[in-house]
């Protein structure tokens, strides 16, 4: 049995990594700024520690692990600056365990949001024992970020144009990361994690319409309309600054690629978008 230090422990991906590793009998140090909440979430089956990328004094329990999952919080334009001190700390302390970093499919070419690319380079230029996963858009984004639009307004409101995305399930991402942490032979590899099919947002609206038995419309907002609606709803300007280029990757076709990485890493086929949306919305 080994011990794994999991950041973003209470979040979408971190919690799936923890579920996958505990199912295999591994020990978990669950790292978050809210350890009490995290402890409850996992019914006391993990060691919950206070961890904040902004506070170096909270880094030391990572050194008591055989592997680390590094996840940066979303919607942060300064993500590289937030995470870099932790990576420096691991390197300065000659950390020898395995590290998996969560990047994003297509982000290696997204000049306007360079943080994941810079983080990948940081690992590649380090002496650390890293692997990188680049997942496509999460299938769970619809439940996590668009639930109110879908259920209350019967719309999908992302500026994704008519492009396709190879949506991937957070559960499959978690299982793939746990497989990478456990496999001693996998080092310095980058895996693009996708579902087995690509969909437009029109396709997603049609699937949701079937599940909810009511018409869900994809509004396909242009950038100006999207910005205005966010502003009118009180969202700070940086949200549009972040989301427009992210959804632009769907619009311009750079995240419709399909890989076999999930099957290769876990031995199982990826979950389908239909199954995940039924679980989240039925
Ligand atoms: N959504 C997508 O489609 C997609 C696709 C590809 C890649 N990604 C990447 O996935 C990442 C987000 O993953 P997610 O959806 O699992 O995130 P999430 O559910 O929002 O969880 C993020 C976690 O980060 C923790 N956190 C926030 N600030 C922190 C800090 N200063 N120090 C330590 N922990 C902190 C939060 O926990 P506490 O508040 O408890 O500390 C939270 O649990 C981003 O890097 C994003 O670029 C997303």
Automatic annotation (TrEMBL):
Record domain NmrA-like: where: 123-248
NAD-dependent epimerase/dehydratase domain segment(s): 5-64
Pfam families linked to this entry: Epimerase, NmrA
PANTHER family: PRESTALK A DIFFERENTIATION PROTEIN A, PTHR43162
Name the record gives this protein: Uncharacterized conserved protein YbjT, contains NAD(P)-binding and DUF2867 domains
Lineage of origin: Bacteria, Pseudomonadati, Bacteroidota, Flavobacteriia, Flavobacteriales
